[in-house]
Structure formats: structure tokens, C-alpha cells
Automatic annotation (TrEMBL):
Naturally occurring in which organism (per UniProt): Thiohalocapsa halophila
Protein's UniProt keywords contain DNA-binding: no
The organism's taxonomic lineage, starting at the top: Bacteria, Pseudomonadati, Pseudomonadota, Gammaproteobacteria, Chromatiales
Sorted UniProt keywords: Membrane, Transmembrane, Transmembrane helix
PANTHER family: SLR1512 PROTEIN
Leader sequence segment: none
InterPro entries attached to this UniProt entry: Sbt_1
UniProt protein name: Sodium-dependent bicarbonate transport family permease
Amino acid sequence: MDALLEFLTRFVSQLQSPTLGFLLGGMIIAALGSRLEIPDAIYKFIVFMLLMKVGLKGGMKIREAELSEMLLPAIFALAMGMLIVFIGRYTLAMLPNVKTEDGIATAGLFGAVSGSTLAAALAVLESENIAYEAWSVALYPFMDIPALVTAIVLASLYLNKKRGNGGESVKIWPIVKESLQGSALSALLLGIALGLITQPAPVYDSFFEPLFRGLLSVLMLVMGMEAWARLNELRKVAHWYAVYAFVAPLTHGLIAFGLGWIAHVTTGFSPGGVVVLAVIAGSSSDISGPPTLRAGIPSANPSAYVGSSTAVGTPVAIALGIPIYIGLAQALMGG
């Protein structure tokens, strides 16, 4: 009983963090009809800056890490990316009034990773002085790419069978290439590479680190406003998408948390690292995933998968998921 009370107390305190406050604030002012706008170019620049910061720190820490420490979490991240898509394929895609390719595309987007949600989680971890392996941000592509590839392959197989072209093969490399060229993953991988092969500490300490929290707050405000705007799109499709978008982030995150706990027990993966793994599993891609799926599954309805992710999935992942995973880590592992 004491452990449950402690968890609930920590959960409520997490909801009061400025990161989540700006997200909710954006939703509230949008609901009130505010005409406040943040130009798209500024939004993209902020995302780039945040992911470069995260990537630089991750790259610098990878140089100091034992690769064997990264192996099990990376395997779990890859497995989660694929598992999430299969879960969606055999739940959402089989529900009434849900087109199979729309359900698979939605599952693919929820299997892919949100860079902004990851940045929000890292800000909360640092504000709470919860240690995490900085290299854990490198788990992003291990989950993101397999999820998108799996979704496009499953959708292609389904559509080929539906059209009577069951023997037609699906090319994997173009999907991987499209994912790697996405703006979010490109920025993160560039940051990791520069952190690995250069000495970026001076520019990191003097430029990227001081700006991080302010830029993240603006990003959360924009995402809150976007989430409210996307609710109209979500109303155009089956209500099952809203149910899935609420349940899926927490379900995926808790499964990943369990896998992270296994890594914690067997390899010493930190409680903060377990939270990072859970957060990326519970997130849904908001930048690079949608264009990749539009190209890979052109018959799928973007209102279904983008509306589900932006209007419900991302707010749930940030406002509920992050506090839950941190509370669990503190209660179970003393993080």
C-alpha cells in the first residue's frame, strides 16, 4: 500500500512539470480559439536543435560505453518496433470500420519513434536528477526503422494478396533509405556521428545545452496546439482509432518497461535507461514517420494514422506515459 501511495505521489508531481504544462497549455489555448501561430520553419528548426543536442550527447557517451552494455537494450528496441506493428495488425486492423491498410499504417506510426517525446522525457529525467545512459538515445533507430519496414511490408503483402498478386516481392532497402533520410532520424544520427568522431563538448556546453529546455517548452506548446487541431481529422474516421491511440502508447511502453527491467537485472541497465526504452516504445512518430508511410502505403488514410498519433497518442505518451514510467522506475528500481 505504501509503495502504491508513493507511486501516485510521484506521478502527480510529474504532471506538474513545465514540460507537460506547456503541452497542456497549447491544447487549452487552441481549444479557446486562440490565433497564436508558430511558423512551421521555426518548429522544424527547434526539432533539429533538440535532436542534435540529444545526438551529440549520445555520441560522446557511446565513445565511453562498453558495446556489450548496449547489445541487449538494442535487441529489445528492435523487437519492440516489430512487435508493436504486429499487435496493431491483429487488433486495430481487424476491428469494425477500420480498413486493414489504415490499421497497419497506424500501427507502424505507433511503432516508430517520436523525437520530441524522447526529448521531453530526457528533460524530465534530468530535472529529476535521474541518471540514464546517454547512449540510450541511440536505441531510436533500432526501433524506428524496423517498425516502419514491418508496417510497409505487412501492408504490401496484404494489398498484393487482395489484388491477386501474392507472388510480388516487397523491396526492403527503399523503405530503410526513406527512413534514414527522414529529417528527425537524420538529425539524431548526425549528432551521434559528430559526438563520436569529433570533440563537440565546447559548442555543446555553450550553445546546445543552455537552449535545450527553452526550445523544448516552445515545442511542447506547438504540439499541444497541433493535437487539438488534429481532433477534427480524427472525428472523420472510426472511433476505434481514438481508443487505440489512448491504449496503445501505455501498453507498448509498459511492455518495453518490462523488457528494460530484464536488462536492468541482467546487465545493470539503469532505471533511467529503462524509462527511455519505455518512452520511445510508447511514442509515435510525428516528423519522419508520416511521409515514409505516405510513400510506402499510399492507399492508407493519413487522417487515420496522423490524427491518431498527434491528437491522442502523443499527448498520452507525454502527459501520462512519462510520469508512469518514472514512477515505476523509482518504485521498483530506486531510480
